[in-house]
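Worked example 3 (structure in, sequence out).
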């Protein structure tokens, strides 16, 4: 399940102000009588309730909302545990019918962009259902060969989901639904579009959306993602160039471990050879890479080798569970800020996995050393 994951993330810009550009959203939440339906505007800081209404005895509802600045806007329509993503445009009369317990559990009419979002949801819904089924089978068997076969099928399905999303994005690059597609993720994974090459899809969507929605505030968020990526690539290039010319001193980092205690990179190094390793649970090969790293660590830790491993995950419970399940014996830290982590910024990390090897004097002497390459570097530095 190996893949390279970028850590830049798409952020939606907050919207403000409102006028009389009304949209009507009506329909039915089956098996949801006399419940509250909430229409929530998506903003950078989270959901903002635009309006709410009680359903009838049959689950029927009707909501009217004025769009901020008259621009097509991202919303979530919620009732109980059910959530339906919408992109509403001025003057639309949208009909939504939600049926529980189905992967594609709702229908929608009257909103072109929302109908496109439904296509994205279907790709993800059916794909994730297959992945969940394979994960269950994997956990139920102890046969290594069977697990390897399931692992292979899992990887194939993961990339099949991504290929379908790419096909959707290329076909609908000028839609706001393409922005929604770019920000999809597999549960427990980093963003689906996260490898180094994926930036081309962000650029494509930004260019095409600008033609159809030249004043859309979402273009700001897209461009910010592209700019951040470009800056990180430039910084990484500078680090690579510096390393090719001479060893470089490492920037200091101090991040919390799973108990909330701050762990300093300087304190961890203290005359040791140290590996600064960036990783994520979303990297499907992380478990295997960590297992290999544990063997190397056991071989060299008593000779003055330490590992300072930085997670770029954003969920503390998932990260803590991952560290404990894999029984990682080194210093594990995370600030749950993803691409905004200070460590990520300081070291110009664009994608993971990525690592930096420091000698006993605190100089960065190698980058992205794994497996046999790492063993060779350690053997040289431990002389």
């Amino acid at each position: 399940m190996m893949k390279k994951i970028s850590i830049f993330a798409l952020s939606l810009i907050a919207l403000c102000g409102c006028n009389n550009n009304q949209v009507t959203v009506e329909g039915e939440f089956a098996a949801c009588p006399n419940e509250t339906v909430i229409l929530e505007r998506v903003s950078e800081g989270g959901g903002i309730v635009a309006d709410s209404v009680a359903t009838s005895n049959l689950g029927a509802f009707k909501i009217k909302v004025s769009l901020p600045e008259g621009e097509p806007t991202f919303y979530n329509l919620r009732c109980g545990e059910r959530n339906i993503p919408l992109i509403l445009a001025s003057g639309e009369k949208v009909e939504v019918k939600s049926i529980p317990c189905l992967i594609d559990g709702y229908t929608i009419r009257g909103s072109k962009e929302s109908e496109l979002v439904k296509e994205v949801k279907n790709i993800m819904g059916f794909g994730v259902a297959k992945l969940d089924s394979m994960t269950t089978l994997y956990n139920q068997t102890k046969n290594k060969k069977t697990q390897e076969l399931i692992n292979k099928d899992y990887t194939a399905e993961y990339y099949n989901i991504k290929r379908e999303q790419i096909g959707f994005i290329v076909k609908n690059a000028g839609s706001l639904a393409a922005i929604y597609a770019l920000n999809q993720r597999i549960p427990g994974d980093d963003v689906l579009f996260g490898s180094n090459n994926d930036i081309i899809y962000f650029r494509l969507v930004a260019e095409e959306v600008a033609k159809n929605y030249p004043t859309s505030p979402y273009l700001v968020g897209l461009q910010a993602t592209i700019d951040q990526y470009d800056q990180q690539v430039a910084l990484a290039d500078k680090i690579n160039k510096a390393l090719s010319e001479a060893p470089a001193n490492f920037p200091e980092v101090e991040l919390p471990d799973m108990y909330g205690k701050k762990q300093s990179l300087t304190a961890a190094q203290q005359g040791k050879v140290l590996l600064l390793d960036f990783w994520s649970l979303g990297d499907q090969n992380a478990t295997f890479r960590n297992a290999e790293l544990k063997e190397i660590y056991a071989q060299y830790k008593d000779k003055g080798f330490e590992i300072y491993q930085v997670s770029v995950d954003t969920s503390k419970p998932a990260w803590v569970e991952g560290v404990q399940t894999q029984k990682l014996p080194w210093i594990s830290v995370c600030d749950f800020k993803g691409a905004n982590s200070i460590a990520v910024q300081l070291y110009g990390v664009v994608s993971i996995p990525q690592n930096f090897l420091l000698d006993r004097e605190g100089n960065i002497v190698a980058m992205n050393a794994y497996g046999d390459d790492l063993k060779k570097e350690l053997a040289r530095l431990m002389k």
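Notes: The chain has two domains: 5-212, 247-381. Residues 112-140 form the longest helix (29 residues).
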